[in-house]
């Protein structure tokens, strides 16, 4: 989870927030002043990003000692302590906002993902994310999706072929786009085709697409598309799916529902850091 890219993101965030130091904490606390603190949940959440938050503290000052009380993926109630930290007060307070920003954002994604996963429980449908992620944060945000019980779609353009409307328009036809992809793509790459109409669904079946993405179709139209596909390809549904309607899209024959909102619209959860005087030895 803590990769060189994650360390780079942490460094950028710390430079942004504390590149000139924390003038307030520096003015109030001498270097030897020590405190202890804890992060707690203020609402029901699926926690995520604790290792990142811990890294923020130790990257700010290696003398800060962090203990994780919960683990990523845990469902926690309001008032639950999830992380303890002790060490120099100035460093602890300097790292506070950056540590919380990471944990609140990633926990928000994990919490939203869990609500979607719960909404289709008992069906055979997988809820997956998309590439609609915060630039640079894709690996962390997709990790948070997994912590919430959902799954990842492709992480980059290089993972498999996904022929969308603009590819079809530029290639001249869906069949032509599939033919060219089949000839040039790596032999292990699946060919997925986006279809907006039943006519395109039938064309994708004739072209022997491996996966057919039903884009912005109603549940009734999806039923007709599934019947037309008749098991010849995996079926993905995307577009127009909300939490309150997702169950109605989890129809027999649908394998995957992709939800961009998992990452682009997840609200940050409420976590807070409480600081206390260091215990006397």
State Rg: 23 Å
Q: State the helicity in percent bands.
A: 40-55%
**Separate helix tally:** 11
Low-confidence parts:
none
Q: What structural category arises from helix and sheet content?
A: alpha/beta
Report a brief summary of the structure.
The chain is an alpha/beta fold and 281 residues long.
Structural account:
The structure is a single chain. Helix content is 42%, strand content 20%. With 281 residues, the chain is of the alpha/beta class. It has 11 helices and 12 strands. The two termini are 35 Å apart. Strand 9, helix 9 and strand 10 form a beta-alpha-beta unit. The longest helix has 31 residues. The strands form 3 sheets. It has a 6-stranded parallel beta sheet.
Task: Describe this protein with a few key phrases.
single chain, 281 residues, alpha/beta, 6-stranded parallel sheet, 4-stranded antiparallel sheet, 11 helices, 42% helix, elongated
Write the layout of secondary structure elements.
Elements: H1 4-18, H2 23-28, E1 34-41, E2 45-46, H3 50-60, E3 65-68, E4 75-76, E5 81-88, H4 89-119, E6 126-128, H5 138-147, E7 161-163, H6 165-171, H7 174-184, E8 191-195, H8 198-206, E9 211-215, H9 219-229, E10 234-238, H10 246-249, E11 256-258, H11 261-264, E12 271-277
Parallel strand pairs: 6-11, 7-8, 8-9, 9-10, 10-11
Antiparallel strand pairs: 1-5, 1-12, 2-4, 3-5
Helix pairs in contact: 1-3, 1-4, 3-4, 4-5, 6-7, 8-9
């Amino acid at each position: 989870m803590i990769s060189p890219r994650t360390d780079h993101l942490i460094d950028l965030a710390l430079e942004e927030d504390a590149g000139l130091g924390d003038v307030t904490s520096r003015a109030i606390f001498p270097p030897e002043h020590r405190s202890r603190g804890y992060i707690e949940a203020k609402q029901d959440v699926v926690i995520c990003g604790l290792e990142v938050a811990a890294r923020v503290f130790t990257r700010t000052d290696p003398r800060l000692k962090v203990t994780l009380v919960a683990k990523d993926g845990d469902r926690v109630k309001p008032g639950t302590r999830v992380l303890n930290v002790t060490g120099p007060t100035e460093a602890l307070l300097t790292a506070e906002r950056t540590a919380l920003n990471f944990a609140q954002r990633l926990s928000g994604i994990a919490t939203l993902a869990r609500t979607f996963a719960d909404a289709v429980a008992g069906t055979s449908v997988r809820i997956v994310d998309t590439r609609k992620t915060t630039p640079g944060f894709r690996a962390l945000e997709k990790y948070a999706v997994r912590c919430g019980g959902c799954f990842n779609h492709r992480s980059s353009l290089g993972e498999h072929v996904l022929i969308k409307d603009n590819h079809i328009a530029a290639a001249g036809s869906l069949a032509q786009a599939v033919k060219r992809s089949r000839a040039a793509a790596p032999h292990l790459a699946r060919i997925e085709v986006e279809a907006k109409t039943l006519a395109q669904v039938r064309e994708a079946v004739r072209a022997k697409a491996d996966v057919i993405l039903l884009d912005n179709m109603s549940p009734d139209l999806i039923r007709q598309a599934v019947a037309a596909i008749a098991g010849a390809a995996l079926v993905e549904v995307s577009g127009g799916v909300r939490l309150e309607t997702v169950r109605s899209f989890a129809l027999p024959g649908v394998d995957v529902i992709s939800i961009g909102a998992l990452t682009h619209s997840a609200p940050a959860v409420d976590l807070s850091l409480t600081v206390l005087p260091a215990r006397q030895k």
